[in-house]
Each structure stands twice: as structure tokens, then as C-alpha cells.
Amino acid sequence: MRILLIGYGKMGQTIGALAVQRGHEIAGIVDLHASQSIIADFTPEAVDVAIEFTHPDSAFANVMTCLGQGIPVVCGSTGWLHHFEEARALTTELGGSLFYASNYSVGVNLFFHFNEYIAAKMAQYGGYDVAMREIHHTQKIDQPSGTALTAAEGILRHFPAKTTWRNAPAEMPAELAIISERTGDAVGTHIVTYTSDVDTLELKHEAHSREGFALGALLAAEWLPGRPGVFGMKELLDL
Ligand SMILES: NC(=O)C1=CN([C@@H]2O[C@H](COP(=O)(O)OP(=O)(O)OC[C@H]3O[C@@H](n4cnc5c(N)ncnc54)[C@H](OP(=O)(O)O)[C@@H]3O)[C@@H](O)[C@H]2O)C=CC1
Ligand SMILES: O=C(O)C1=N[C@H](C(=O)O)C[C@H](O)C1
């Protein structure tokens, strides 16, 4: 496939290297530093799919521009989901193709699946409180992580005692605490902890490298073209 990389930082470079290993062509790079190209330079005649990993403040505009260009777009940037419904609406209006995941690793999407199952089961047995931690590198701009937000939303859907989340220790019983830690070059760890008077149960995912994120994004990029609509890892992995 001919891939347009939008964002050529830690993720863009990891995806680019793996894409070539998988026999794909990097048809272009759009990045504030690494290239002078802009998305409008590219058309569906030259690009099969765009993969966007940039910044919370740029992702929405990048996605909307790809949709306007008629280029299927796989987006991994986090911290912009307050605009997501606008992107969904434009995708539908234009008959475009948008794939989004807060985390592209297969392991994290299994974590999301188990998280919802465990939340529902734990809700049946009183006496447990639940809280979350996420640990990332010191360069990460947004918090909580997009992964933590996805997991938190999964808990809120299935654990009625929690009705909202906060990125700090809980002050009310109905609050789900998400504690964010930034340390060194930590790739990404997410932990959900259930605590009662008599025991503790934890669900943890720890990424060892960015390869898992990159593989998932490329699997999505290989799958998306020719599929009009808005999709995520549940459709790709049939979870
Ligand atoms: N969904 C997933 O599986 C994963 C998602 N992410 C998310 O992806 C995003 C990027 O992460 P990461 O690669 O580590 O970050 P980096 O900062 O390493 O890379 C982002 C790159 O995008 C560039 N950039 C910023 N704005 C624009 C723009 N408007 N157009 C083109 N390029 C731009 C940055 O330039 P500059 O340095 O000048 O800002 C930088 O080179 C984050 O939101 C992160 O949360 C990360 C890993 C996995
Ligand atoms: O910024 C990162 O590095 C990551 N961001 C994503 C998130 O916000 O969940 C995914 C992964 O945890 C790495």
C-alpha cells in the first residue's frame, strides 16, 4: 500500500519502519519538522491510506483534511475526542473512511475487553472500590492517557457505583480516580485495581515498546481502504 505518514515522531518513525518491512511504500511524510509537505499535496490517486499520529491540538484538523481529500485515515492521536463526533459526521457526509483507536495494540484491546467483563462481574459483589493508574514517558503532553479514558468509560458503563472519573484521587465514592504518572521513557502502563477489606484484584497492561501500537495501526491501515464509515479495533479484531 501507499501510505501517507502524518506525524513523524516516535510513532510515525516506528510505523514507517514497520510499514517498509511489511512491503508498503511511504508515499509521503507530513510533519512540522521532518518535511515541507502538507496533506493537501496528496490525493487518493497517489495515496491509499493516511496514518496520523501527531498531537492533541492538530489531530482533528489533520483528520478533517484527509477526509476532505478523500484519503482513508487511520488516526492514533489522543486528546482530541471532544471533536470526534464532528469527524464522524464529516465521514458520513462524504462517504469517507475513518479508523480511530486510543490504543492500537492487540494486548490493550484485549485489556479493554476483559476490563468491561471484570467491571460487570465485580459490580455484582459489593464491597469493592475501583481506581486506575497510567504511567507514561515525560514527553507525553496529554493526561489522562487516551487508553485510560477508554478503560474508564468501560468501567463506568458496567460498574454503577462509579458515575464519573477524575484525574486525581477520588473525593467522592462515585468518582473513579485515574492517577497519571510521568517518568523517564515509560512506553505505556495501565492498571485497574479493585480493592475490598479482604483482597485486591488488578488488571494490568504494560507495553514494552511501540511496536505493538505500530503493528495495530498498520493492520488497521491494511484493512480500512474500501470500507466507508467509522471503525475501531472492535471491528478489526472482532472483539
Ligand atoms: N493510539 C495509539 O496506539 C497510540 C497513540 N499515541 C498518540 O499519538 C500521538 C503522537 O505520539 P508520539 O508519536 O509519541 O509523539 P511525538 O511527539 O513523538 O510525535 C508527534 C509528531 O507529530 C508532529 N506534529 C505535531 N503537530 C503536527 C501537525 N499539525 N502536522 C504534522 N505533524 C505534527 C510533532 O512535531 P513537534 O515535535 O514539533 O510537535 C512530532 O514530530 C499522541 O497523541 C499520543 O498520545 C501514541 C502511541 C500509541
Ligand atoms: O503518548 C503515548 O506514548 C501513548 N499514548 C496513547 C494514550 O494516550 O493512551 C497510547 C499509549 O499508551 C502510548
TrEMBL record:
Coiled coil: none annotated. Belongs to the DapB family. The keyword rRNA-binding does not apply. SUPFAM superfamilies: Glyceraldehyde-3-phosphate dehydrogenase-like, C-terminal domain, NAD(P)-binding Rossmann-fold domains. Pathway: Amino-acid biosynthesis; L-lysine biosynthesis via DAP pathway; (S)-tetrahydrodipicolinate from L-aspartate: step 4/4. One of its GO terms (molecular function) is 4-hydroxy-tetrahydrodipicolinate reductase. Gene3D superfamilies: Dihydrodipicolinate Reductase, domain 2 (3.30.360.10), NAD(P)-binding Rossmann-like Domain (3.40.50.720). It catalyses: (S)-2,3,4,5-tetrahydrodipicolinate + NAD(+) + H2O = (2S,4S)-4-hydroxy-2,3,4,5-tetrahydrodipicolinate + NADH + H(+); (S)-2,3,4,5-tetrahydrodipicolinate + NADP(+) + H2O = (2S,4S)-4-hydroxy-2,3,4,5-tetrahydrodipicolinate + NADPH + H(+). Residues 107-237 form the Dihydrodipicolinate reductase C-terminal domain. It is an enzyme of class 1 (oxidoreductase). The keyword Acyltransferase does not apply. Keywords: Amino-acid biosynthesis, Diaminopimelate biosynthesis, Lysine biosynthesis, NAD, NADP, Oxidoreductase. Its EC number is 1.17.1.8. This is 4-hydroxy-tetrahydrodipicolinate reductase. The gene is dapB. PANTHER family: 4-HYDROXY-TETRAHYDRODIPICOLINATE REDUCTASE 1, CHLOROPLASTIC-RELATED (PTHR20836:SF0), DIHYDRODIPICOLINATE REDUCTASE (PTHR20836). Residues 1-103 form the Dihydrodipicolinate reductase N-terminal domain. InterPro entries: DapB_C, DapB_N, DHDPR_bac, NAD(P)-bd_dom_sf.
